[in-house]
């Protein structure tokens, strides 16, 4: 017990738990399994917190749109690919196949900006959302560690940056405990816009935006991916298991065939919103163990 408490202190998670209803609505408790799952506990009212950011979600400049080669063709290709549930292999995504992989920080930043603009102009799911609600991502274009959630919520859409509110503040604490900052990692989602229904993203919804996450990962090429919560973990690993079974176990994200990018290790863990709803020593120890495993892998690669 003492070792768990010390690990929790090292992670900076000794304060009283806090959460808001907006943090909770899209992250149900993990699926039950034979393994021991954390016991929910009550939590006091939320405390709002804002964060500095490196936002990649500014409004699309029309002149930039005009500069994207074959934009209308890309629009058609993405819609066709996504309608067939093969977004990860969209013809619009050719990094490492017909398009050279970006190498320098500037090249990667430019590529991500192009992907963002093309996403906002072509994604069938996000085209149905308000343009200002799209949350594409935040952080370094050369990040070694990428955190992936399923979809932004109202808090994120309000400011245009991922992982806000109390769950975002908790994630910031975890990143800091890992010796990193938001500016050094990348935070993104499988789905880039808030879902209209207040429940986790369906597989069909995830697939509609998936090709753009694939492009982000191919451009950034992190050493480790950490999906936060069941929907993101199951999508990246193409697994039917729940987060209680997936967390703490190494998996692999496999890039599209022929793109000359090696498979990337994946360490699934709980979403910080779930942690706040189940603020026990056991849950915190599980999550901290997952993050320590990710850091160990980073240093070994």
CATH level 3 topology: Uracil-DNA Glycosylase, subunit E
The strand order across the widest sheet is: 1-3-2-4
Number of helices: 13
What would you give as the CATH superfamily? Uracil-DNA glycosylase-like domain
Number of domains: 1
The fraction of residues assigned to DSSP E strands is 5-15%
The CATH architecture term is: 3-Layer(aba) Sandwich
Provide the helix percentage: 40-55%
Secondary-structure element order, N to C: HHHHHHEEHHEHEHHEEHH
Largest sheet: 4 strands, mixed
Radius of gyration: 18 Å
Mean pLDDT: 77
Q: Which CATH top level class fits?
A: Alpha Beta
Bulk shape: globular
Low-confidence stretches: 1-6, 14-26, 31-89
N-to-C CA distance:
32 Å
Q: What is the strand tally?
A: 6
Structural classification? alpha/beta
Describe this structure in words.
This protein has helices at residues 2-11, 21-24, 62-66, 71-83, 105-122, 124-127, 154-159, 165-177, 203-220, 230-237, 243-246, 272-277, 281-300, and strands spanning 137-139, 145-149, 186-189, 224-227, 251-253, 264-266. The chain is globular and about 50 Å long. The chain has a single domain (2-28, 51-300), classed as 3-Layer(aba) Sandwich (Uracil-DNA Glycosylase, subunit E), CATH 3.40.470. It is of the alpha/beta class. The protein starts with a helix and ends with a helix. It has a four-stranded mixed sheet with strand order 1-3-2-4. Strands 5-6 form a two-stranded antiparallel ribbon.
Give a brief rundown of this model.
With 301 residues, this protein is α/β, with parallel strands linked by helices. It has helices at residues 2-11, 21-24, 62-66, 71-83, 105-122, 124-127, 154-159, 165-177, 203-220, 230-237, 243-246, 272-277, 281-300; strands at 137-139, 145-149, 186-189, 224-227, 251-253, 264-266. It has one domain: Uracil-DNA glycosylase-like domain (Uracil-DNA Glycosylase, subunit E, 3-Layer(aba) Sandwich), CATH 3.40.470.
